[in-house]
Amino acid sequence: ETVINRIAAGEIINRPSNALKELIENSLDAGATSITVTVKDGGIKLLQIQDNGHGIRTEDLPLVCERFTTSKLKIYEDLSTIQTYGFRGEALASISHVSHLSITTKQADSECAYKAHYSDGKLAPAKPGGNSDPEPCAGNNGTIIAAEDLFYNIPSRKNALKNTRDEYNRIYEVASRYAIHNASVAFTCRKLGATKPDLCTQQNSSAINNIGQVFGAKIAASLVEISYECKDLDASFSGYVSSASHEMHKSVFLLFINHRLVDHTPIKRAVESLYSSVLPKASRPFVYLDLRIKPENVDVNVHPTKREVRFLNEDSIVGAIVDCIHKKLTSTNN
Ligand code: ADP
Ligand code: MG
């Protein structure tokens, strides 16, 4: 049974960056205003996230890594909406099956923090033969989650992740994109031991300011704001897109649907072809899109590791996005 769980977990959490995506979303769900990511060897040796959110109640610590355990599902009717965010209650469980996981957490009204270790969904001793109970310790309000030796028990997956620089780049990409989309939250991302972080955004910043931090002031200055509400389609979007030719080696898409970082090939294709016809010199677009769709209209029947999503009225919504960008480009470039 453990082997089956481990294989299933390895399919949900297939590389450090997608574990990080889940951990960042948990920190944001916990109301964090500051999130710090620390990485060793591309997240394979260590992937740690510290937040200043509301923390986890001590009595919940034995449960948080159990499969389908979530504190976010309050009433049954929530299910249809909640499911659209993916596999609820599976992230920590899955990570605990494929790494050495520890959680240190302190709620504001607690006198001290507690540190717990997990293995295969359950509390585990810090050292073989030891006690599994969470241990009181010093700590700040909030939560530190550390996953060590990712895929130590799935050699085939570990072997597939040999390039730690690649994995770190993916981690940086996830952290910087969430930083742009959640500009009220301070994000830091650093390699363990590095004096200077690779990403360091301030609290109460703005999306455009953080785009400048991550992609450079030149790119930020070339962007124009878009915003549109498709009332008949229960959808709306806003964001920033490139408006002039600039030197980009590849197109950049930061697409959030209902605050989740996703891929959507039809949007990407349609926008790319718009740019190559309207702005041939800028045929590598930069697009940050914050798309909101009625949760029931988003398809949840996609494989959990895939970032690709589907939604209802796709053609019309993609059409509205292209129209909106087209209008903006033709009004700013004449
Ligand atoms: P889900 O997010 O779907 O509820 P997870 O497996 O990601 O499932 O997390 C399980 C539970 O652990 C959450 O419901 C939440 O109660 C708790 N939790 C996880 N991370 C944090 C965090 N950073 N701060 C506070 N609580 C957390
Ligand atoms: Mg979660």
TrEMBL record:
Main location: nucleus
GO BP terms: mismatch repair
DNA mismatch repair protein S5 domain segment(s): 211-330
Source domain of life: Eukaryota
Signal sequence interval, chain numbering: none
GO cellular component, one term: MutLalpha complex
The entry's keywords: DNA damage, DNA repair, Nucleus
Localization terms from the record: Nucleus
Molecular-function GO term, any one: mismatched DNA binding
Family, per entry: Belongs to the DNA mismatch repair MutL/HexB family.
Protein name according to UniProt: DNA mismatch repair protein
Originating species: Coemansia asiatica
Residues of the full protein shown: 21 to 354 of 875
